[in-house]
Amino acid sequence: QKEVEQNSGPLSVPEGAIASLNCTYSDRGSQSFFWYRQYSGKSPELIMFIYSNGDKEDGRFTAQLNKASQYVSLLIRDSQPSDSATYLCAVSKGSQGNLIFGKGTKLSVKP
Amino acid sequence: SQTIHQWPATLVQPVGSPLSLECTVEGTSNPNLYWYRQAAGRGLQLLFYSVGIGQISSEVPQNLSASRPQDRQFILSSKKLLLSDSGFYLCAGGGQGNTGELFFGEGSRLTVL
Questions:
Q1: Are B12 and B80 in contact (CB under 8 A)?
Q2: Going by C-beta distance under 8 Å and a sequence separation of 6 or more, which residues neighbour residue B41?
Q3: Chain B window 37-96: which residues touch A at a Cβ cutoff of 8 Å?
Q4: Gap between the Cα atoms of B108 and B67, Å rounded
Q5: A76: which strand partners?
Q6: Phi, psi (5° rounding) for residue B109?
Q7: pLDDT confidence of residue B109
Q8: Mean pLDDT across chain B
Q9: Span A13-34, pLDDT tens digits
Q10: 49-68 in chain A: CB under 8 A from chain B
Q11: Are B108 and B88 within 8 A, CB to CB?
């Protein structure tokens, strides 16, 4: 079983819609969860992190964590063409734990 | 916040040639530092990490090596490149504290021919 799994996509949504990106992880000891955005040919940039069950909102982005189901998601409201990128989910075991990345989901927002 | 600098940004090397990628960090001291590789169509693979000068942990056995000669300097090397070494190499810093997020450099794209 892969440690961090994501649907590779591409996920295509129309401009203005909500994009929903999902991630599952295998290690129940995982404590911190991250979402990165990576534009083609560029390095990943951190969007959000979450480590408590529930929702965390930051502007148009909402991260959701369910540790019992080992599931993390990212919602992007009012999707824009500039949101088109690959979204990477990453998981770590704690403050000194190394991040394990999923392969990413490619999002395409159509004007 | 910390800033990660990497160079060179791109390079094309023949099989069997040596490699040296350099990474420096600004804005923090005693950072954890990481080298990741991202091959085409694949996820980020952790290659090495370092928690201090001279301290290197290898995650994947291969023909690459890493060194940390100074607190804010992290170097990825190879004596003889293989075709399979092609990829996008990313240096990252962070991984500490309550949040543990990583900040990435601009990346170095290596093509081995």
A1: no
A2: none
A3: 42-44, 46, 49, 51, 59, 90, 95-96
A4: 17
A5: A19, A61
A6: -95, 120
A7: 96
A8: 91
A9: 999 999 999 999 999 988 899 9
A10: 49, 51
A11: yes
